[in-house]
Amino acid sequence: MNEIISKAALEARRARYQPGTRVELVSITDPYTNLKPGNRGTVDSIDSIGTVFVNWDNGSTLGVAYGTDEIKLAERMSETVRKQVLAVRATGATNMFDVKAVFELAVQMDFHELADFIFMDTKAYSHFILTGEPL
Predict the structure, then answer these.
(1) Distance of CA 66 to the CA centre of its chain
(2) I need a surface site. Which of 19, 59, 106, 116 has the fewest CB within 10 A?
(3) In whole angstroms, what is the distance from residue 80 CA to residue 105 CA?
(4) Cβ atoms of residues 101 and 130 within 8 Å
């Protein structure tokens, strides 16, 4: 059941899930959605009752209701992206610091998660290349 959100909780929710923030679905109660736990998306907005509207990577724009559904901040670099970075590196086709070339290879290799990661968070990609650790 939906809870009424306090002003303080709404402000905290808006601070945590600002537009452009990547999120991951934990649970959702809508029986008609094709969204599943683990789906990722980008926050679009939050309304006055705390619903977080997300542009899901699968094309859905279903909102996440406060007190009913649950999301979390997505890890900046998933295991899939890490494996794709290593696969691109294994080709020896480019210097991994040439972000544009890595992006183009990712697209050619159908590594859409990596291409999206580079486009959305070049800083985290560069940090991984320099240190071997996710940001």
Answers:
(1) 19
(2) 59
(3) 16
(4) no
